C-alpha cells in the first residue's frame, strides 16, 4: 500500500475510530464510509476502561463503547468481517496491555491472525517492555507498532527502528491524543534521522485534524497521517443523528484524503 | 536499560506510553544518585526530624487490650506533620524534583492525605503544585481540600469515570505525559511504574526502622505481627520492609472489604483480584472477565483503589505476607473503639488495620502476643463520614 501511494506521490491517510462507538453496527457503517471516501488503512481502537494515553474525546468514545458491554470476541468477529470485505486494506488495532494480558498473549495474537489483523499497537507498552508481546506477535505474523516520541534520542530511535514492522507511529507532540493542542514539534532533521535507521513507513499522529497539518506533515517527509479525535468528535456531536454523522464523516474523510495528494 | 530492577518477581515494570520513559529514566537516575549523595541523605534526615517530627512514638494501647494477654502497639504516623505517613516520602520526592530542576509538581489524591502532604512539601520548597482529585472524593474530604488550597495548591476536580482515586491517577499521568519536561509527578503510594514503588518504599522505610528499634527497646523481642492497611500499599511497605527478613514476624496487610466481598463493592485486589497490567505496573487488579478495570469501593477514600503496589503482589506470591480484608462496618467499629478507649482518632484507613488486630486479639484472648499496628494517619478528616454513618444507623434502629 505504501509503495503504491509512493508511486502515486500520495500520502497515506489512516483514520482512527473506536470499535463499538456508538454501537457495533454503526462502527461498521462508519468504517465503510471511511474506506469508501479514501482511507488507505484503518486504525481501530479496542475500548478500554482506563485509556491513559488518550485525551477526553477518545476517552468518551471508549466509555460509550464499553457501555454496550461488547466482548473482545465480538470485536474480533466484526474485524474479521471487515477483513473479508476489504482483503487488501491494512487494518491495525490499538489497545491497552491489560486486554492483551487478560486474554492470554498467545491467544490474543492468534485471534488477531485469524481475524486478519495487520498490526497491533499497545498504547501502554513502551519498547522497553515489549519483548513479551513482540515475539508472540512475530510468531503469528502480526506487525508490532512502536511509538516514537518527538524528543526521542538516537538510541531510542535506533531501538525502535530495529524492531519496527509495518510502520512507526510518530508523535506530533508530547501529551495525549486530541485536537486541542495543535503544536507540531517534528522537524525535517528528526525525520531524516529516523529514515537513516529504518525503511519502514512513518505515520504521524496526535493533533491531526486539518488539511494544512497534513500537507505540512507530508512535506516533512512522513509517509502519512493518523487522524482520530477529529473523526470521533463528529461521532460525539451527532450521536442521535446518524445520517448527519455519516455525512460529516464522509465530508471530512474526503477532504483530508485529498490533502494527502501531493501533486 | 534501567539502573535498578523494575520487577519484584513477575510484578512491577514500566507499562506507560513511550513518551513517559525518558521522565521515568531521569527520575531513576536522580534517585540512584541521591542515595549515594551524603548531603541529600543528611538533608532528608534533618527534614524528617526537625520539620516532619520524627521519630513518631510507638504507643501501647493499655485500655483496648484489657482482659487479654495481647499487647497492641500503635506506630503513631498520625502524629507526623500533615497527619499521616505521607509526609515522609513527599519530602524525599520534593527534594528529587529540585534535584531534577523541575518547577512544578503534579499529584493525585484520594482521601486527600497525599494531597495535603504534597501541598506541604511544595509550599516548603516553593514548587508550583496541582493536585488531581475525583469529584466524589472532593465532596467526602472537603477539609483536606481546604488544607491543600490554603497551602497554595491547585485542586483539579476529576469528573471522568468513577470520580475517585483511580480516575485522578489516570488524569495525573495524562498531565505528566504533556508536562514532564518541567514537572515531577509525585505519586503518593508504592505503586505505579518503576521506579516509584522503590522510591516510595525507600522513603517510607523509616517507619519500619523506627518501629523495630522501639519494640526491641520496649519488649526486648520482635513482635508476632505487623499489621497495616493496604490501599496502594505505601504505609504497609514502609513498616514491613524492615521486618521482611525476620521470618518469625507475620506481616499482615489489611485491604478494604467495603460493603462485603460478596457484594462486589470492595477494594481488595490482593485477596479477590487477579494479575493484570494497569497504572504502569503488573500487579493484582480488580477487573472483569474482559480485562476492564473495575471500580473499587471503600468507605475510606484513601483505600479506594482497584490495584496495589507490585511489591505487595510479590510478597503475597512468595507467602511472605498475608493479605486479609475487613469491611467498612468493622473499620468504623474499630474507629469508635480507639476514640473511646485510647483517646486517639484514627484515619479510617488505619482503622482497617486496627480492626483486624482486634479480631486476632479476640480470637486468642489468652495467647501472649505482641502486635504493631501502623496507625498511618489521623482521622480528623473522617469524622463527618463516620458521623453520617452513625446517624444513618440510629435512624435505621429507630425505624425498626
From TrEMBL, chain B:
<dbReference type="InterPro" id="IPR006654">
    <property type="entry name" value="Trp_synth_beta"/>
</dbReference>
<comment type="function">
    <text>The beta subunit is responsible for the synthesis of L-tryptophan from indole and L-serine.</text>
</comment>
<protein>
    <recommendedName>
        <fullName>Tryptophan synthase beta chain</fullName>
        <ecNumber>4.2.1.20</ecNumber>
    </recommendedName>
</protein>
<dbReference type="Pfam" id="PF00291">
    <property type="entry name" value="PALP"/>
</dbReference>
<feature type="domain" description="Tryptophan synthase beta chain-like PALP">
    <location>
        <begin position="52"/>
        <end position="373"/>
    </location>
</feature>
<dbReference type="GO" id="GO:0005737">
    <property type="term" value="C:cytoplasm"/>
</dbReference>
<keyword id="KW-0822">Tryptophan biosynthesis</keyword>
<dbReference type="InterPro" id="IPR036052">
    <property type="entry name" value="TrpB-like_PALP_sf"/>
</dbReference>
<dbReference type="InterPro" id="IPR001926">
    <property type="entry name" value="TrpB-like_PALP"/>
</dbReference>
<comment type="pathway">
    <text>Amino-acid biosynthesis; L-tryptophan biosynthesis; L-tryptophan from chorismate: step 5/5.</text>
</comment>
<comment type="subunit">
    <text>Tetramer of two alpha and two beta chains.</text>
</comment>
<dbReference type="InterPro" id="IPR006653">
    <property type="entry name" value="Trp_synth_b_CS"/>
</dbReference>
<keyword id="KW-0028">Amino-acid biosynthesis</keyword>
<keyword id="KW-0057">Aromatic amino acid biosynthesis</keyword>
<dbReference type="InterPro" id="IPR023026">
    <property type="entry name" value="Trp_synth_beta/beta-like"/>
</dbReference>
<keyword id="KW-0663">Pyridoxal phosphate</keyword>
<dbReference type="GO" id="GO:0004834">
    <property type="term" value="F:tryptophan synthase activity"/>
</dbReference>
<keyword id="KW-0456">Lyase</keyword>
<feature type="modified residue" description="N6-(pyridoxal phosphate)lysine">
    <location>
        <position position="86"/>
    </location>
</feature>
<comment type="similarity">
    <text>Belongs to the TrpB family.</text>
</comment>
